[in-house]
């Protein structure tokens, strides 16, 4: 009996648990009303799910978070019904590190014995990655200037109300406004149950 309980406990512990999935709420913003109020007090309202997007570590996670946010948004739109969303990215996340640039230039004029002059110009540009951390480069890390999230290549949405041209145009207009995608990169389909 004890062996059976230990085995069951080990099986439960072996399953990975996504801590973010417990924090998500079915609301469009992905935040509880209390945290939304706190966000407004601390410098303005937060956009939907910004914290989740800032902490994604891979392109697949970023796609999944975007798909979930779109799904939650569209479920609350009249006439759309249940939806499935697929987001395709052009590339992966890009990190831009700070670069220190130093330039030096010198100009030399020479005159020869016959009255001619010669001017020599020398310029040098040196770039190095800015580092944070320990003295003399030990334990230092590059200074991250900004992180660029992947660009969206296209979106496909399958919605119960996708057979209606009005619903299709509303969904397309929403995706154009949210992501700046041209209409030909957004496809809305009628969902079959």
Automatic annotation (TrEMBL):
Signal peptide (residue range): 1-19
Region (Disordered): 19-62, 98-125
Superkingdom of origin: Bacteria
Biased composition (Polar residues): 100-125
Keywords, ordered alphabetically: Signal
Name of the protein in question: Stage III sporulation protein AG
Record organism: Candidatus Enterocloster faecavium
């Amino acid at each position: 009996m004890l062996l059976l309980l230990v085995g069951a406990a080990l099986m439960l512990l072996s399953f990975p648990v996504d801590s973010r999935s417990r924090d998500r709420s079915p609301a469009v913003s992905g935040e509880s009303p209390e945290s939304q109020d706190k966000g407004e007090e601390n410098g303005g309202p937060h956009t939907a799910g910004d914290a989740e997007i800032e902490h994604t570590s891979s392109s697949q996670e970023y796609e999944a978070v975007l798909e979930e946010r779109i799904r939650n948004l569209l479920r609350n739109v009249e006439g759309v019904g249940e939806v499935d969303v697929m987001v395709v990215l052009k590339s992966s996340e890009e990190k831009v590190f700070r670069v220190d640039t130093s330039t030096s230039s010198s100009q030399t004029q020479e005159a020869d014995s016959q009255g001619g002059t010669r001017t020599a110009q020398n310029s040098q540009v040196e770039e190095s990655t800015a580092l944070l951390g320990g003295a003399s480069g030990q334990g230092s890390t590059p200074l991250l200037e900004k992180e660029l999230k992947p660009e969206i290549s296209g979106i496909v949405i399958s919605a119960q109300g996708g057979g209606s041209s009005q619903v299709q145009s509303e969904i397309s207009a929403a995706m154009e406004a949210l992501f700046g995608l041209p209409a030909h990169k957004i496809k809305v389909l009628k969902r079959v149950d």
